[in-house]
Structures are given as C-alpha cells and as structure tokens.
Amino acid sequence: MIERVRNYRISEEIGSGGMAVVFRGTQESLNRTVAIKALKTSVAEDENLVARFEREALSVASFQHENIISLYDFFRERGALFMIMEYVEGIDLYDLLERSPIIPTDVAAIVALQVARALDYAHFRGVVHRDVKPANVMLSKLGEVKLMDFGIARVEQSDLTQHGIGLGTPAYMSPEQIIGDHLDHRTDLWSLGVVLYQMVAGRKPFYEEDDRTVMQRIRTEEPPQPRKVNPAIDKDIERIILKCMKKKPGDRFGSAQELVISLEQYLATRVAHNYRARLVLFLREHEIVSSDESIATLHPALIGAGRQASIRVARRRPRFLSTILLFLALAFGLAGGIVVAPLLRSSASAFSSSRTPKTVVVKPAPAPGQLNVLVRPWAHVEINGVQRETTPHPPIPLAPGRYRVRLTNPYGFTPVEEVVEIQSGKQRTLEVALRRETPGGDQ
After folding, report:
1. Which of 13, 129, 198, 279 has the fewest CB atoms within 10 Å around its CB?
2. What are the distances in angstroms from CA 56 to CA 10, 114, 127, 405?
3. Which residues contact 304 (CB under 8 A, 6 or more apart)?
4. Is pTM, for the whole model, over 0.70?
5. Cβ contacts of residue 339 below 8 Å, gap of 6+?
6. Residue 385 neighbours by CB under 8 Å, 6+ apart
7. How many CB atoms lie within 10 A of CB 12?
8. What DSSP string describes 301-336?
9. Segment 200-243, tens digit of pLDDT
10. Handedness of CA 242, 390, 232, 100 (dihedral sign)
11. Coil, strand, or helix at residue 420?
C-alpha cells in the first residue's frame, strides 16, 4: 500500500471495487480526514475505464449539495489517477441491508427522500446518474445521506444508445436502460424505486431464475406488489414505489422534485422530529452509532413552552375586555346623550374587580416522564392497546402512571407484553430481545 500522494497521508484501505480502491487519509495542510480513490493499476491501461474515472471527477467537480459526496481534488501522479473526496464516517446502504434486510418504512422513506434531493440537483444540471443502488448510498453517523459514484453518469442531452448497454447494475436498471434506449432523468427514478422497494420489502423486485434473467424479467414482468411481500408496508409508500417503477418513463414521476414532494407528504404525518435524528436512532439500534455518539449528536426536545404561553395570554383577556367595554360606553354616551350610568357602573365594576388582587392557588400538572423502548431486532410498540411507534424511535413522553406495553414483530417473533411504571420527570427504559417463534408455538 502506498503511504502518501502529494500532501495526503494514507492511513488504511477502506474499500475496493472492480476498477478502484478507496483509502482513508489525511490532508495534512488542513488536518482533515479525506477519502482517496485510486484507479487500480490493473485497469489503468483500459482507455474506457480511465475515461469513466475521469468522467466521474468531472461530473461532481462543480456539485455542492449536502446529499452528494464532495470532490476536493483530482490529479495524476506516478502514472496513477487519484480523486480526493469527502470522507463520510458511517455505513453504505448495501452493508446496512446485510444487517437489517427490512428497514422501517419511515426510515426507508427518509433515505429515499435524501437520494431524490441529490438526483434533483444533478438532473437540474443535466447529469443522469445511471447507477443508483444501495452500494452507492452512504449513511453517516450524523444522520446524513450521501449519493456517490457518478462513474457512469452522462449529460442528459447526449446520445446514450450506443454506450448505455452493459453499464449499470442489472437488478436496478430501468427497462429503457436494458435495451440501450435513449435515457433521461426518469431512469434514475426507476432505480431509486427499486432501492426503496428493497428497503421496505426485504428483497429486490426482480431476481434471477433458472429460465429467465433479471434483465428479461425487468423488461417483460410487473414487479410483485410490495404489500404481498411484506404486509407491514402501507398503501401510501407502495403507491410511491410502483409509480417510480412504471415500465413507460412517461408514467413515472415527472421529475425527482415530484418524488421529493410525495415523500415529504408521506413523512409529514409519520415522523414528528428531525429526519437526521430518526436515522441516528435507527443506526444506534443496529450498533452502527454508539450510545455516546448518539448523545453527542441528538438534543432533547423542549416540552410545554407553547402551553405556558397560551395560559399567559388567556389570563390577560378579562382586563382587556373590560377596558374595551368602558371605552364603548363612554363613546356612545358622549355622542348621543344616552343615559349610560348602569352600563358605566357595570363596566367600572368589572374593571376595578379585574385589578383587585386575588390569591389563586393553581396546582401545577405533574411533569411528564418518558418511555425509552429498545428492541432487538425491532418491533411495533402498542401502549394500552394503541399503536404508538415502530422502533427505533425517540423516547415517548407519557403522563405519570402505569402502562401496558405490547411489542410485536410480524416476521416470526413472539410478542412481548410488559407493564411499566412512568414517574414524573424520569425516563424508564424498556429493553427487550425478541425470541424467534418455533413450530407449534414452543420456545
């Protein structure tokens, strides 16, 4: 392993693919950790692969978007090509799916939303990615989602018919990409639909069979309904997936921005807190983020400020109303000569009474407690018979008292039911490892 290129010190190899190897390194002039991507010497003589490597650098050189890996430098040294890129500490979606084949729909939608935003940015600049797949999606320990590897990206207006064949990953390629047709931004929407399908269903929509290849099935078959593969998927996310995966590009979302809007509407009623926080909690559940790292990243929510403000406004209303009544009484009396003594006495009485100090004893409501549920691998959380959350999730605020908590996972795990006591101002942690069901129900 080489130890240095220019002013970058190489620490270790962190990944390797068919044409390149990636190292973790340090940019000594800024004391910054970077990723160093080097074209393998075994393919350095292949003009097509060299052109692809250079094209990736040119594609992202001008990109500045929070959901796209940043490129810092690109150069040739000692006959080798190097890209210096942003280093993201975390896990790619491919490895995450190896650990957790099924991802909760809200988490999957958050990941897809961030990728769709990256695609919308690239498409606006006329660049089609053409290789959207789990291995090219990074999830950082800070809850960020980054799209990477624009190695086979092309300008949308260019003719891709001749060069499109054979480029891309078959299981994620659109029908038009398989037949080598002219591609536009909608091919990326198909691929992202496949990724979203895989996240929530636990498998790809199309796979190899003895008599049919993946490519043949993509061209001629409709994808299986996601809810038939995983009944826990709701209809709204299924509708988004299937629209992305329409055979005809014109039947898909018209743009990545349309997909972004649909995913935002889906998440608006399902994720109440920050999307990054939701991802961090999910990564913590799968031990990709440690407890200390999550504590350093997340901040507790403020509770009760809005309610206290509304109480303060309500207490000011009686005095304000009495003043208005007194003003109106005086105005009408002076203008029309109307006898207003009774009204004046009533208003003055109300006004003076509002200024009379009174001792009111208000017993404050007890501060809520919190229930923190940690389940391996994951579970739906019911509290007193009402579905509340799907783990992982932030602590649930609850009034002090006793609650019946039921944890269920429909994929072959035995439900667990517990009674927990919530105390004012304190957090109660319920940690459970679900057990696999065995035939006949014996454990």
Report:
1. 13
2. 22, 20, 11, 51
3. none
4. no
5. 333
6. 404, 406
7. 8
8. PP-SHHHHHHHHHHHHHHHHHHHHHHHHHHHHHHHH
9. 999 999 988 878 899 999 999 999 999 999 999 999 999 999 99
10. positive
11. strand
Cβ pair 37, 16 in contact under 8 A:
no
Assess contact for 193 and 173: CB atoms under 8 A. no
Terminal Cα distance for the chain, rounded? 51
| 3-class DSSP assignment, residue 135 | helix
Pairing assessment for the beta strands 127-128 and 4-5 based on DSSP bridges: unpaired
Domains of the chain: 4-86 (3.30.200.20), 90-297 (1.10.510.10), 369-441 (2.60.40.1120)
Q: How far is CA 51 from the centre of its chain?
A: 34
Going by their DSSP bridges, the two strands 8-16 and 20-27 should be labelled as: antiparallel
Rg of the chain taking only CA atoms, in angstroms: 30
Tokens of 318: 């009686």
Q: Across the beta sheet with 396-398, what order do the strands follow?
A: 396-398, 369-376, 427-433
Q: What single letter denotes the amino acid at residue 143?
A: G
C-alpha neighbours within 13 Å on the C-beta side of residue 237: 30
Phi and psi dihedrals of 113, rounded to 5? -60, -45
Q: Catalytic residue positions?
A: 131
Number of Cβ within 10 Å of residue 290's Cβ equals: 12
178-193 tens-digit pLDDT: 998 888 999 999 999 9
